[in-house]
DNA sequence: CGTTTCTTTGAATCCGGTCAAGGTCCGTGG
DNA sequence: CCACGGACCTTGACCGGATTCAAAGAAACG
């Protein structure tokens, strides 16, 4: 497991969102945080590391829902069961809080309910954006838009990728080979430059965003 | 425009969800209810007819977000601007309410806030399901899952389709030709039978759902 | 330094897209 | 009531991009 590059970032110490009802937990790489169909009475915040949510099909195909980074909340679900599973991309620290505990939380209650509302609507926005990327085919467009949003999140010039090629493929609805070929092509077109498998920098932002097209 | 088949359904008179702050409106087929980037201070409920939300790209491609039917709420948005536009699939009656009016709504307030919360989380669930369908490629799977969810919504044996082939294509991320070919194939495989362009019945439910694979 | 795992590359195949007719349905007007 | 016209849908032939299968190449790890 080679998650080092990502975990050794200046792991932006971020705020504990849940206050007194939050419980700190640690997960090793690839460890499961919650499973599909499990009761969804907890909500989570990433403190360090990164998390992915995914849904597995009977025939082995996998759809990744999203990736979550320090500061972000995940685990909000429409129903009372998780429709995706969540697991640690690398070693990570997670804060968990009982959803049902919010109502017995006195002065914090309003703030927490607002927090959950915001996180849920933002989740909706992310999902819509993801949908939009999957809908319009074209491997180049998909990969380019993935790289752009990754780069936007990074503060440094060099953008780290917390996930494997397979993860990217399952996120975009492509095969790992297509993702790899497309990355190679984007690189030889001079739009991005990779430093190892899991770090890259955008060389020509305008060129990249031209591929995406709003 | 041949929306008759759908509009002449026993148009399930459904409850007015908004009470005193709701305003009844009527839209003709293809008329725009709200536009992309427009302020999102209203929420809507379909009373009669059907509605589609969509997002247009600069190059003409279109992604349909979802279809809404009598009783369902739409127009909830993560931000304060609409990220999709909405328009009438056929002639329809819509109920609209100012989101900001909810807080001045006295005894109804709690109920309305709960309603909006439920609608938003359900919207999230629908979007995730849609994402899931788009992610796993295969025209057959996509079309089959579309037909299945349409059939599940219908009370009658004969399922009406409120939308055109082009709408289905833009919903599933396929071309109209592929949708058409796939429908023909499903029919000649004896899984469904079409009566005209916009009505079908499921002949072998098990066969259809086998194509979808959870 | 060898082994394992992940990634890249190559060649052949296949599914869906594109382009171009042809067919069907439906509303209109003779 | 039937003929016409236009919009929508289906079908066919061809093409291209993504998948598949297979193997070689790079990193990470002990």
Automatic annotation (TrEMBL), chains A, B:
Residues 5-104 form the Cyclic nucleotide-binding domain. Residues 137-206 form the HTH crp-type domain. One of its GO terms (cellular component) is cytosol. The lineage of its organism: Bacteria, Pseudomonadati, Pseudomonadota, Alphaproteobacteria, Caulobacterales. Keywords: DNA-binding, Transcription, Transcription regulation. It comes from Phenylobacterium haematophilum. One of its GO terms (molecular function) is DNA-binding transcription factor activity. This is CRP/FNR family nitrogen fixation transcriptional regulator. It holds the Pfam family Crp. InterPro entries: cNMP-bd_dom, cNMP-bd_dom_sf, Env_Response_Regulators, HTH_CRP, RmlC-like_jellyroll, Tscrpt_reg_HTH_Crp-type_CS, WH-like_DNA-bd_sf, WH_DNA-bd_sf. It comes from the Bacteria.
């Amino acid at each position: 497991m080679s998650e080092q590059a990502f975990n050794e970032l200046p792991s932006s110490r971020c705020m504990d969102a849940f206050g007194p009802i939050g419980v700190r937990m640690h997960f090793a790489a690839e460890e499961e945080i919650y499973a599909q169909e499990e009761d969804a009475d907890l909500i989570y915040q990433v403190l360090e590391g990164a998390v992915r949510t995914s849904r597995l099909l009977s025939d082995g195909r996998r759809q990744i829902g999203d990736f979550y980074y320090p500061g972000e909340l995940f685990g909000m679900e429409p129903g009372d069961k998780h429709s995706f599973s969540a697991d640690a991309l690398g070693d990570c620290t997670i804060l968990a809080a009982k959803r049902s505990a919010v109502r017995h939380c006195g002065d914090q209650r309003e703030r927490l309910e607002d927090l959950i509302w915001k996180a849920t609507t933002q989740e909706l926005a992310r999902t819509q954006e993801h949908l939009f990327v999957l809908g319009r085919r074209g491997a180049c467009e998909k990969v380019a838009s993935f790289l752009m949003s990754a780069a936007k999140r990074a503060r440094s010039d060099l953008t780290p990728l917390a996930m494997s090629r397979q993860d990217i493929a399952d996120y975009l609805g492509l095969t790992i080979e297509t993702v790899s070929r497309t990355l190679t092509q984007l690189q030889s077109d001079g739009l991005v430059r990779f430093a190892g498998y899991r770090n890259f920098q955008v060389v020509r932002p305008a060129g990249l965003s031209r591929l995406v097209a709003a």
